[in-house]
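Subject: complex prediction, re-run

Hi both,

The earlier run crashed halfway through, so I resubmitted it with identical inputs.
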Amino acid sequence: MHFAYLLSRLDSLRELKAAHAAAATTGFAFLRPAATITSLLQSVTLLRPLPPKALSLPYALSLFGSLPHPASTLAHNLLIRLLLSAAPSSPFSALRLFSRLRRLSLPPDLHSFPLALSASSRLRLLPLGRALHAQSLRFGFSRSLFLRNALISLYSSCAALIDAEHVFLEKNLAIDVVSYNTLIHGYANAGDINSARHLFDVMPHRDQISWGTVIAGYSRSGRCVDALRLFDEMQAVGFEPDNAALVSALSCCAQLGLLERGRAIHDRIGKAMNAHLLTALVDMYAKCGAINAAVNLFDECPCKNQFTWNAVIVGLAMHGHGVLSLEYFDKMQAAGVRPDGVTFLGVLVACSHSGFVEAARKFFGEMEAVHAVPRELKHYGCMSDLLGRAGFIGEAMEMIEGMPVKGDAYVWGGVLAGCRNHRGNMDVAEIAARHLLELNPGDSGVYLIVAGIYADAGRWADVARIRSSMDAMKVKRNVALSFVQQPWVMALSRRLLGAIRDNIQLHLGEKGRLKSGLKLVM
DNA sequence: GTAGGGTTAG
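This time it finished cleanly. Structure:
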Protein backbone atom coordinates (compact mmCIF):
# COMPACT_ATOMS: atom_id res chain seq x y z
CA MET A 1 0.00 0.00 0.00
CA HIS A 2 2.77 2.43 0.94
CA PHE A 3 4.74 1.45 -2.14
CA ALA A 4 1.71 2.19 -4.30
CA TYR A 5 1.38 5.58 -2.62
CA LEU A 6 5.04 6.32 -3.27
CA LEU A 7 4.60 5.39 -6.92
CA SER A 8 1.58 7.61 -7.30
CA ARG A 9 3.79 10.60 -6.38
CA LEU A 10 6.17 9.92 -9.25
CA ASP A 11 5.52 11.66 -12.52
CA SER A 12 7.92 10.22 -15.06
CA LEU A 13 8.74 6.86 -16.52
CA ARG A 14 12.36 7.34 -15.45
CA GLU A 15 11.37 7.81 -11.81
CA LEU A 16 9.12 4.76 -11.94
CA LYS A 17 11.93 2.63 -13.28
CA ALA A 18 14.22 3.95 -10.56
CA ALA A 19 11.66 3.06 -7.90
CA HIS A 20 11.29 -0.35 -9.50
CA ALA A 21 15.06 -0.89 -9.30
CA ALA A 22 15.12 0.29 -5.68
CA ALA A 23 12.31 -2.07 -4.74
CA ALA A 24 14.14 -4.95 -6.40
CA THR A 25 17.50 -4.25 -4.73
CA THR A 26 16.03 -3.77 -1.25
CA GLY A 27 14.24 -7.06 -1.57
CA PHE A 28 10.85 -5.42 -1.12
CA ALA A 29 9.66 -6.70 -4.42
CA PHE A 30 10.27 -10.30 -3.39
CA LEU A 31 7.86 -10.05 -0.52
CA ARG A 32 4.81 -9.39 -2.66
CA PRO A 33 6.03 -9.60 -6.24
CA ALA A 34 2.65 -9.57 -8.02
CA ALA A 35 1.34 -6.64 -5.98
CA THR A 36 4.53 -4.65 -6.55
CA ILE A 37 4.51 -5.23 -10.28
CA THR A 38 0.81 -4.46 -10.55
CA SER A 39 1.36 -1.19 -8.66
CA LEU A 40 4.11 -0.30 -11.11
CA LEU A 41 1.85 -1.13 -14.04
CA GLN A 42 -0.89 1.01 -12.59
CA SER A 43 1.53 3.89 -12.15
CA VAL A 44 2.57 3.71 -15.78
CA THR A 45 -1.06 4.09 -16.86
CA LEU A 46 -1.57 7.02 -14.50
CA LEU A 47 1.38 9.11 -15.69
CA ARG A 48 0.30 12.52 -16.96
CA PRO A 49 1.23 13.41 -19.53
CA LEU A 50 1.23 9.84 -20.72
CA PRO A 51 4.54 8.98 -22.43
CA PRO A 52 4.26 7.89 -26.08
CA LYS A 53 3.57 4.24 -26.69
CA ALA A 54 7.12 3.63 -27.89
CA LEU A 55 8.40 4.53 -24.42
CA SER A 56 5.72 3.29 -22.04
CA LEU A 57 4.61 0.11 -23.78
CA PRO A 58 7.86 -1.90 -23.69
CA TYR A 59 8.17 -1.27 -19.97
CA ALA A 60 4.51 -2.09 -19.32
CA LEU A 61 4.84 -5.29 -21.35
CA SER A 62 7.92 -6.35 -19.41
CA LEU A 63 6.06 -5.73 -16.15
CA PHE A 64 3.07 -7.72 -17.41
CA GLY A 65 5.35 -10.53 -18.57
CA SER A 66 7.00 -10.79 -15.18
CA LEU A 67 3.70 -11.41 -13.39
CA PRO A 68 3.02 -14.99 -12.32
CA HIS A 69 0.91 -16.75 -14.97
CA PRO A 70 -1.90 -16.04 -15.87
CA ALA A 71 -1.63 -12.58 -14.30
CA SER A 72 -4.86 -11.00 -13.02
CA THR A 73 -7.95 -9.29 -14.34
CA LEU A 74 -6.62 -6.02 -12.94
CA ALA A 75 -3.28 -6.40 -14.74
CA HIS A 76 -5.08 -7.14 -18.00
CA ASN A 77 -7.32 -4.11 -17.57
CA LEU A 78 -4.37 -1.85 -16.87
CA LEU A 79 -2.46 -2.98 -19.94
CA ILE A 80 -5.58 -2.73 -22.13
CA ARG A 81 -6.10 0.79 -20.88
CA LEU A 82 -2.53 1.70 -21.73
CA LEU A 83 -2.90 0.21 -25.22
CA LEU A 84 -5.96 2.37 -25.78
CA SER A 85 -4.63 5.60 -24.32
CA ALA A 86 -0.97 5.71 -25.36
CA ALA A 87 -0.33 7.41 -28.68
CA PRO A 88 -0.71 5.90 -31.15
CA SER A 89 -3.52 3.83 -29.71
CA SER A 90 -3.69 0.09 -30.41
CA PRO A 91 -7.30 -1.05 -30.19
CA PHE A 92 -6.52 -4.34 -31.96
CA SER A 93 -3.91 -5.29 -29.39
CA ALA A 94 -6.32 -4.24 -26.67
CA LEU A 95 -8.92 -6.68 -28.02
CA ARG A 96 -6.33 -9.44 -28.26
CA LEU A 97 -5.52 -8.93 -24.61
CA PHE A 98 -9.19 -8.96 -23.68
CA SER A 99 -9.61 -12.25 -25.50
CA ARG A 100 -6.56 -13.63 -23.64
CA LEU A 101 -8.30 -12.70 -20.40
CA ARG A 102 -11.39 -14.63 -21.48
CA ARG A 103 -9.40 -17.57 -22.84
CA LEU A 104 -7.60 -17.98 -19.54
CA SER A 105 -10.95 -17.90 -17.75
CA LEU A 106 -10.06 -14.87 -15.68
CA PRO A 107 -13.31 -13.15 -14.70
CA PRO A 108 -13.84 -9.87 -16.58
CA ASP A 109 -14.89 -7.16 -14.15
CA LEU A 110 -16.76 -3.86 -14.35
CA HIS A 111 -13.71 -2.24 -15.96
CA SER A 112 -12.98 -4.92 -18.56
CA PHE A 113 -16.12 -4.56 -20.66
CA PRO A 114 -16.07 -0.77 -21.08
CA LEU A 115 -12.45 -1.06 -22.20
CA ALA A 116 -13.16 -3.81 -24.72
CA LEU A 117 -16.21 -1.90 -25.95
CA SER A 118 -14.12 1.23 -26.37
CA ALA A 119 -11.69 -0.74 -28.53
CA SER A 120 -14.55 -2.15 -30.65
CA SER A 121 -16.02 1.31 -30.92
CA ARG A 122 -12.77 2.81 -32.24
CA LEU A 123 -12.50 -0.01 -34.79
CA ARG A 124 -16.20 0.24 -35.67
CA LEU A 125 -16.56 -3.49 -35.02
CA LEU A 126 -20.30 -3.56 -34.51
CA PRO A 127 -20.78 -7.37 -34.50
CA LEU A 128 -18.02 -7.82 -31.94
CA GLY A 129 -19.49 -4.98 -29.90
CA ARG A 130 -22.87 -6.69 -29.90
CA ALA A 131 -21.27 -9.92 -28.72
CA LEU A 132 -19.52 -8.04 -25.91
CA HIS A 133 -22.83 -6.40 -25.03
CA ALA A 134 -24.44 -9.83 -24.66
CA GLN A 135 -21.54 -11.18 -22.62
CA SER A 136 -21.59 -8.19 -20.29
CA LEU A 137 -25.27 -8.81 -19.59
CA ARG A 138 -24.52 -12.44 -18.74
CA PHE A 139 -22.01 -11.19 -16.20
CA GLY A 140 -24.74 -9.03 -14.67
CA PHE A 141 -23.25 -5.62 -15.45
CA SER A 142 -26.33 -4.18 -17.14
CA ARG A 143 -26.86 -1.52 -14.49
CA SER A 144 -23.35 -0.12 -14.65
CA LEU A 145 -23.39 3.44 -15.93
CA PHE A 146 -19.87 3.12 -17.31
CA LEU A 147 -20.84 0.03 -19.23
CA ARG A 148 -23.99 1.60 -20.59
CA ASN A 149 -22.11 4.71 -21.70
CA ALA A 150 -19.54 2.51 -23.41
CA LEU A 151 -22.42 0.78 -25.21
CA ILE A 152 -23.96 4.10 -26.25
CA SER A 153 -20.54 5.06 -27.56
CA LEU A 154 -20.17 1.82 -29.50
CA TYR A 155 -23.58 2.11 -31.12
CA SER A 156 -23.13 5.83 -31.77
CA SER A 157 -19.77 5.33 -33.46
CA CYS A 158 -21.23 2.59 -35.62
CA ALA A 159 -24.27 4.71 -36.52
CA ALA A 160 -26.57 2.12 -34.91
CA LEU A 161 -28.75 4.83 -33.46
CA ILE A 162 -31.70 2.60 -32.62
CA ASP A 163 -29.47 0.56 -30.33
CA ALA A 164 -27.83 3.64 -28.86
CA GLU A 165 -31.24 5.13 -28.06
CA HIS A 166 -32.35 1.85 -26.61
CA VAL A 167 -29.49 1.78 -24.10
CA PHE A 168 -29.94 5.49 -23.40
CA LEU A 169 -33.67 5.19 -22.68
CA GLU A 170 -33.71 1.79 -20.83
CA LYS A 171 -36.58 1.57 -17.86
CA ASN A 172 -35.29 3.59 -14.64
CA LEU A 173 -31.56 3.24 -15.29
CA ALA A 174 -29.41 6.29 -14.58
CA ILE A 175 -27.81 8.36 -17.29
CA ASP A 176 -25.41 11.27 -16.93
CA VAL A 177 -23.87 14.06 -18.96
CA VAL A 178 -21.56 11.55 -20.67
CA SER A 179 -24.58 9.56 -21.86
CA TYR A 180 -26.07 12.71 -23.37
CA ASN A 181 -22.80 13.84 -24.97
CA THR A 182 -22.23 10.42 -26.46
CA LEU A 183 -25.69 10.18 -27.98
CA ILE A 184 -25.44 13.75 -29.29
CA HIS A 185 -22.26 12.67 -31.02
CA GLY A 186 -24.07 9.60 -32.33
CA TYR A 187 -26.77 11.70 -33.99
CA ALA A 188 -24.23 14.11 -35.45
CA ASN A 189 -22.08 11.23 -36.63
CA ALA A 190 -25.05 9.73 -38.44
CA GLY A 191 -25.73 13.08 -40.14
CA ASP A 192 -28.79 13.91 -38.04
CA ILE A 193 -27.54 17.22 -36.69
CA ASN A 194 -31.04 18.44 -35.84
CA SER A 195 -31.62 15.56 -33.41
CA ALA A 196 -28.18 16.23 -31.96
CA ARG A 197 -29.08 19.87 -31.40
CA HIS A 198 -32.45 18.95 -29.92
CA LEU A 199 -30.88 16.62 -27.37
CA PHE A 200 -28.35 19.33 -26.54
CA ASP A 201 -31.19 21.79 -25.99
CA VAL A 202 -33.14 19.52 -23.66
CA MET A 203 -30.31 18.00 -21.64
CA PRO A 204 -30.33 19.05 -17.99
CA HIS A 205 -26.64 19.99 -17.58
CA ARG A 206 -24.19 20.84 -20.34
CA ASP A 207 -20.44 20.74 -20.00
CA GLN A 208 -17.59 21.91 -22.25
CA ILE A 209 -17.76 18.64 -24.17
CA SER A 210 -21.48 19.00 -24.87
CA TRP A 211 -20.83 22.37 -26.53
CA GLY A 212 -17.83 21.07 -28.44
CA THR A 213 -19.75 18.05 -29.69
CA VAL A 214 -22.59 20.07 -31.20
CA ILE A 215 -20.22 22.66 -32.66
CA ALA A 216 -18.23 19.88 -34.32
CA GLY A 217 -21.46 18.33 -35.57
CA TYR A 218 -22.52 21.58 -37.22
CA SER A 219 -19.07 22.08 -38.69
CA ARG A 220 -18.93 18.60 -40.18
CA SER A 221 -22.37 18.92 -41.70
CA GLY A 222 -21.44 22.23 -43.30
CA ARG A 223 -23.65 24.32 -40.99
CA CYS A 224 -20.76 26.64 -40.24
CA VAL A 225 -22.77 29.72 -39.42
CA ASP A 226 -24.69 27.76 -36.79
CA ALA A 227 -21.42 26.34 -35.47
CA LEU A 228 -19.85 29.79 -35.05
CA ARG A 229 -23.02 31.14 -33.47
CA LEU A 230 -22.88 28.35 -30.89
CA PHE A 231 -19.16 28.96 -30.43
CA ASP A 232 -19.97 32.54 -29.44
CA GLU A 233 -22.90 31.48 -27.31
CA MET A 234 -20.80 29.01 -25.34
CA GLN A 235 -18.48 31.85 -24.35
CA ALA A 236 -21.38 34.14 -23.58
CA VAL A 237 -22.65 31.65 -20.99
CA GLY A 238 -19.23 31.31 -19.42
CA PHE A 239 -17.55 28.30 -21.04
CA GLU A 240 -14.03 28.79 -22.33
CA PRO A 241 -13.73 26.97 -25.65
CA ASP A 242 -11.25 24.13 -25.36
CA ASN A 243 -9.02 22.83 -28.13
CA ALA A 244 -11.75 20.73 -29.69
CA ALA A 245 -14.13 23.68 -29.96
CA LEU A 246 -11.34 25.90 -31.32
CA VAL A 247 -10.47 23.32 -33.97
CA SER A 248 -14.09 23.11 -35.13
CA ALA A 249 -14.43 26.89 -35.18
CA LEU A 250 -11.27 27.14 -37.29
CA SER A 251 -12.60 24.54 -39.68
CA CYS A 252 -15.72 26.69 -40.08
CA CYS A 253 -13.61 29.76 -40.78
CA ALA A 254 -11.83 27.73 -43.45
CA GLN A 255 -15.08 26.58 -45.00
CA LEU A 256 -16.53 30.09 -45.01
CA GLY A 257 -13.33 31.88 -45.98
CA LEU A 258 -13.37 33.99 -42.80
CA LEU A 259 -9.73 34.98 -42.64
CA GLU A 260 -10.01 37.65 -39.96
CA ARG A 261 -12.09 35.48 -37.70
CA GLY A 262 -9.58 32.68 -38.12
CA ARG A 263 -6.70 35.02 -37.33
CA ALA A 264 -8.42 36.13 -34.14
CA ILE A 265 -8.70 32.49 -33.05
CA HIS A 266 -5.03 31.98 -33.91
CA ASP A 267 -4.16 34.94 -31.67
CA ARG A 268 -5.94 33.47 -28.68
CA ILE A 269 -4.27 30.09 -29.20
CA GLY A 270 -0.87 31.75 -29.09
CA LYS A 271 1.84 29.28 -28.17
CA ALA A 272 -0.50 26.58 -26.85
CA MET A 273 -0.21 24.66 -30.11
CA ASN A 274 -0.82 20.98 -30.82
CA ALA A 275 -1.12 18.95 -34.02
CA HIS A 276 -4.92 19.24 -34.22
CA LEU A 277 -4.85 23.01 -33.84
CA LEU A 278 -1.91 23.40 -36.20
CA THR A 279 -3.67 21.34 -38.87
CA ALA A 280 -6.83 23.40 -38.55
CA LEU A 281 -4.85 26.66 -38.69
CA VAL A 282 -2.76 25.65 -41.72
CA ASP A 283 -5.92 24.56 -43.51
CA MET A 284 -7.74 27.75 -42.51
CA TYR A 285 -4.98 30.02 -43.84
CA ALA A 286 -4.70 28.00 -47.04
CA LYS A 287 -8.44 27.96 -47.70
CA CYS A 288 -8.70 31.67 -46.93
CA GLY A 289 -6.11 32.45 -49.57
CA ALA A 290 -3.23 33.16 -47.19
CA ILE A 291 -1.02 30.32 -48.38
CA ASN A 292 2.18 32.04 -47.25
CA ALA A 293 0.83 32.35 -43.72
CA ALA A 294 -0.11 28.65 -43.87
CA VAL A 295 3.35 27.54 -44.98
CA ASN A 296 5.22 29.83 -42.58
CA LEU A 297 3.18 28.63 -39.64
CA PHE A 298 3.71 25.04 -40.72
CA ASP A 299 7.47 25.55 -41.00
CA GLU A 300 7.88 27.15 -37.61
CA CYS A 301 5.75 24.75 -35.53
CA PRO A 302 7.33 21.43 -34.57
CA CYS A 303 4.14 19.65 -33.50
CA LYS A 304 3.08 18.28 -36.89
CA ASN A 305 1.68 14.88 -37.77
CA GLN A 306 0.30 13.16 -40.86
CA PHE A 307 -2.81 15.38 -40.87
CA THR A 308 -0.74 18.56 -40.72
CA TRP A 309 1.52 17.46 -43.56
CA ASN A 310 -1.55 16.61 -45.61
CA ALA A 311 -3.07 20.04 -44.96
CA VAL A 312 0.02 21.86 -46.22
CA ILE A 313 0.52 19.55 -49.23
CA VAL A 314 -3.13 19.83 -50.29
CA GLY A 315 -3.14 23.57 -49.59
CA LEU A 316 -0.12 24.18 -51.80
CA ALA A 317 -1.56 21.93 -54.50
CA MET A 318 -4.88 23.78 -54.54
CA HIS A 319 -3.04 27.07 -54.84
CA GLY A 320 -1.27 25.84 -57.93
CA HIS A 321 2.14 25.53 -56.26
CA GLY A 322 2.78 22.11 -57.71
CA VAL A 323 6.54 22.06 -57.32
CA LEU A 324 6.45 23.26 -53.73
CA SER A 325 3.68 20.83 -52.86
CA LEU A 326 5.81 17.95 -54.15
CA GLU A 327 8.80 19.29 -52.21
CA TYR A 328 6.73 19.08 -49.04
CA PHE A 329 5.78 15.54 -49.99
CA ASP A 330 9.50 14.70 -50.09
CA LYS A 331 10.06 16.46 -46.77
CA MET A 332 7.18 14.51 -45.24
CA GLN A 333 8.83 11.23 -46.15
CA ALA A 334 12.23 12.48 -45.02
CA ALA A 335 10.61 13.29 -41.68
CA GLY A 336 9.46 9.68 -41.44
CA VAL A 337 5.75 10.47 -41.67
CA ARG A 338 3.83 7.97 -43.76
CA PRO A 339 1.70 9.30 -46.62
CA ASP A 340 -1.94 8.18 -46.83
CA GLY A 341 -4.78 8.49 -49.31
CA VAL A 342 -5.23 12.21 -48.63
CA THR A 343 -1.52 12.84 -49.17
CA PHE A 344 -1.65 11.17 -52.57
CA LEU A 345 -4.75 13.11 -53.49
CA GLY A 346 -2.80 16.30 -52.76
CA VAL A 347 0.19 15.03 -54.72
CA LEU A 348 -1.97 14.16 -57.74
CA VAL A 349 -3.74 17.52 -57.59
CA ALA A 350 -0.33 19.20 -57.49
CA CYS A 351 0.68 17.29 -60.63
CA SER A 352 -2.65 18.02 -62.27
CA HIS A 353 -2.48 21.77 -61.73
CA SER A 354 1.09 21.95 -62.93
CA GLY A 355 0.74 19.57 -65.87
CA PHE A 356 3.20 17.00 -64.47
CA VAL A 357 1.70 14.03 -66.28
CA GLU A 358 4.71 11.75 -66.09
CA ALA A 359 5.20 12.42 -62.38
CA ALA A 360 1.51 11.74 -61.74
CA ARG A 361 1.72 8.39 -63.53
CA LYS A 362 4.69 7.53 -61.34
CA PHE A 363 2.94 8.53 -58.06
CA PHE A 364 -0.26 6.80 -59.10
CA GLY A 365 1.71 3.63 -59.81
CA GLU A 366 3.77 3.79 -56.65
CA MET A 367 1.07 4.66 -54.17
CA GLU A 368 -0.11 1.07 -53.89
CA ALA A 369 3.02 -0.78 -54.96
CA VAL A 370 5.55 1.13 -52.86
CA HIS A 371 3.58 2.93 -50.16
CA ALA A 372 0.79 0.40 -49.65
CA VAL A 373 -1.83 3.14 -49.87
CA PRO A 374 -4.96 1.80 -51.59
CA ARG A 375 -6.20 3.64 -54.65
CA GLU A 376 -9.63 5.08 -54.10
CA LEU A 377 -12.19 6.56 -56.46
CA LYS A 378 -10.93 10.07 -55.70
CA HIS A 379 -7.45 9.15 -56.96
CA TYR A 380 -8.88 7.78 -60.17
CA GLY A 381 -10.93 10.95 -60.48
CA CYS A 382 -7.86 13.07 -60.11
CA MET A 383 -5.94 11.01 -62.67
CA SER A 384 -8.84 11.28 -65.10
CA ASP A 385 -8.86 15.05 -64.63
CA LEU A 386 -5.12 15.22 -65.18
CA LEU A 387 -5.04 12.93 -68.20
CA GLY A 388 -8.04 14.72 -69.67
CA ARG A 389 -6.40 18.12 -69.24
CA ALA A 390 -3.25 16.85 -70.93
CA GLY A 391 -5.26 15.37 -73.78
CA PHE A 392 -4.61 11.69 -72.98
CA ILE A 393 -8.26 10.78 -73.39
CA GLY A 394 -7.60 7.22 -74.52
CA GLU A 395 -5.37 6.56 -71.54
CA ALA A 396 -8.04 7.94 -69.21
CA MET A 397 -10.64 5.61 -70.76
CA GLU A 398 -8.33 2.62 -70.40
CA MET A 399 -7.78 3.49 -66.76
CA ILE A 400 -11.52 3.76 -66.17
CA GLU A 401 -12.14 0.39 -67.84
CA GLY A 402 -9.60 -1.18 -65.50
CA MET A 403 -11.09 0.36 -62.36
CA PRO A 404 -12.46 -2.01 -59.74
CA VAL A 405 -15.45 0.30 -59.06
CA LYS A 406 -17.91 2.33 -61.09
CA GLY A 407 -16.75 5.81 -62.06
CA ASP A 408 -18.15 8.89 -60.35
CA ALA A 409 -18.69 12.44 -61.56
CA TYR A 410 -15.01 13.34 -61.13
CA VAL A 411 -13.88 10.41 -63.23
CA TRP A 412 -16.26 11.07 -66.12
CA GLY A 413 -16.03 14.82 -65.73
CA GLY A 414 -12.29 14.61 -66.38
CA VAL A 415 -12.89 12.71 -69.60
CA LEU A 416 -15.61 15.06 -70.78
CA ALA A 417 -13.61 18.19 -69.99
CA GLY A 418 -10.66 16.62 -71.80
CA CYS A 419 -12.81 16.03 -74.87
CA ARG A 420 -14.01 19.62 -74.73
CA ASN A 421 -10.55 21.12 -74.49
CA HIS A 422 -8.78 18.80 -76.88
CA ARG A 423 -11.38 18.27 -79.57
CA GLY A 424 -11.66 14.69 -78.46
CA ASN A 425 -13.44 11.82 -80.01
CA MET A 426 -17.18 12.51 -80.08
CA ASP A 427 -18.10 8.95 -79.14
CA VAL A 428 -16.01 9.16 -75.99
CA ALA A 429 -17.57 12.52 -75.11
CA GLU A 430 -21.03 11.00 -75.49
CA ILE A 431 -20.13 8.02 -73.33
CA ALA A 432 -18.81 10.33 -70.60
CA ALA A 433 -21.87 12.58 -70.86
CA ARG A 434 -24.19 9.60 -70.60
CA HIS A 435 -22.48 8.45 -67.42
CA LEU A 436 -22.55 11.95 -65.97
CA LEU A 437 -26.25 12.37 -66.65
CA GLU A 438 -26.93 8.97 -65.18
CA LEU A 439 -25.17 10.13 -62.02
CA ASN A 440 -26.79 13.55 -61.97
CA PRO A 441 -29.76 13.81 -64.35
CA GLY A 442 -30.34 17.55 -64.12
CA ASP A 443 -26.73 18.61 -64.60
CA SER A 444 -26.85 21.60 -66.93
CA GLY A 445 -23.06 21.72 -67.16
CA VAL A 446 -22.95 18.39 -68.95
CA TYR A 447 -25.44 19.53 -71.59
CA LEU A 448 -23.57 22.78 -72.11
CA ILE A 449 -20.20 21.09 -72.53
CA VAL A 450 -21.58 18.56 -74.97
CA ALA A 451 -23.29 21.36 -76.88
CA GLY A 452 -19.95 23.19 -76.94
CA ILE A 453 -18.19 20.12 -78.35
CA TYR A 454 -20.80 19.85 -81.11
CA ALA A 455 -20.45 23.55 -81.80
CA ASP A 456 -16.68 23.17 -82.18
CA ALA A 457 -17.30 20.43 -84.70
CA GLY A 458 -19.79 22.62 -86.53
CA ARG A 459 -22.64 20.20 -85.79
CA TRP A 460 -25.23 22.92 -85.26
CA ALA A 461 -28.20 20.61 -85.60
CA ASP A 462 -26.91 18.62 -82.61
CA VAL A 463 -26.35 21.83 -80.65
CA ALA A 464 -29.95 22.83 -81.28
CA ARG A 465 -31.15 19.33 -80.35
CA ILE A 466 -29.41 19.55 -76.96
CA ARG A 467 -30.68 23.04 -76.31
CA SER A 468 -34.24 21.99 -76.97
CA SER A 469 -33.95 18.84 -74.88
CA MET A 470 -32.68 21.05 -72.04
CA ASP A 471 -35.74 23.21 -72.43
CA ALA A 472 -38.02 20.19 -72.64
CA MET A 473 -36.50 18.68 -69.49
CA LYS A 474 -36.49 22.08 -67.79
CA VAL A 475 -32.79 21.77 -67.00
CA LYS A 476 -31.75 24.81 -65.03
CA ARG A 477 -28.32 26.31 -65.23
CA ASN A 478 -26.62 25.84 -61.92
CA VAL A 479 -24.39 28.53 -60.54
CA ALA A 480 -21.41 27.62 -58.43
CA LEU A 481 -19.34 30.09 -56.56
CA SER A 482 -16.56 30.16 -54.06
CA PHE A 483 -15.46 33.17 -52.12
CA VAL A 484 -12.82 34.51 -49.82
CA GLN A 485 -13.55 37.32 -47.43
CA GLN A 486 -11.40 40.34 -48.22
CA PRO A 487 -12.32 43.99 -47.73
CA TRP A 488 -11.87 44.95 -51.35
CA VAL A 489 -14.03 42.03 -52.44
CA MET A 490 -16.84 43.08 -50.15
CA ALA A 491 -16.88 46.45 -51.92
CA LEU A 492 -17.13 44.71 -55.28
CA SER A 493 -19.75 42.19 -54.41
CA ARG A 494 -22.70 44.09 -55.83
CA ARG A 495 -20.99 44.38 -59.18
CA LEU A 496 -20.01 40.74 -59.10
CA LEU A 497 -23.50 39.59 -58.34
CA GLY A 498 -24.67 41.59 -61.33
CA ALA A 499 -22.04 39.82 -63.36
CA ILE A 500 -23.36 36.42 -62.35
CA ARG A 501 -26.75 37.38 -63.66
CA ASP A 502 -25.17 38.47 -66.89
CA ASN A 503 -23.54 35.06 -67.27
CA ILE A 504 -20.05 36.44 -67.34
CA GLN A 505 -17.27 34.19 -66.14
CA LEU A 506 -15.00 36.06 -63.79
CA HIS A 507 -11.56 35.32 -62.51
CA LEU A 508 -10.46 38.12 -60.26
CA GLY A 509 -7.19 38.06 -58.44
CA GLU A 510 -5.33 40.36 -56.14
CA LYS A 511 -2.44 41.82 -58.11
CA GLY A 512 -3.34 39.54 -60.94
CA ARG A 513 -3.03 36.35 -58.94
CA LEU A 514 -6.04 34.13 -58.85
CA LYS A 515 -4.89 32.32 -55.73
CA SER A 516 -5.39 35.14 -53.27
CA GLY A 517 -8.38 36.68 -54.87
CA LEU A 518 -11.89 35.70 -55.60
CA LYS A 519 -13.20 33.45 -58.24
CA LEU A 520 -16.68 33.07 -59.55
CA VAL A 521 -17.36 30.37 -62.07
CA MET A 522 -20.62 29.77 -63.81
C1' DG B 1 -13.53 2.00 -16.87
C1' DT B 2 -17.42 5.65 -20.47
C1' DA B 3 -17.93 11.35 -24.04
C1' DG B 4 -16.39 15.76 -28.32
C1' DG B 5 -11.86 18.07 -32.34
C1' DG B 6 -8.00 18.47 -37.72
C1' DT B 7 -6.49 17.13 -43.71
C1' DT B 8 -9.91 14.85 -49.19
C1' DA B 9 -10.13 17.17 -56.37
C1' DG B 10 -13.69 21.65 -59.00
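Residues 487-501 of chain A form the longest helix (15 residues).

- K.
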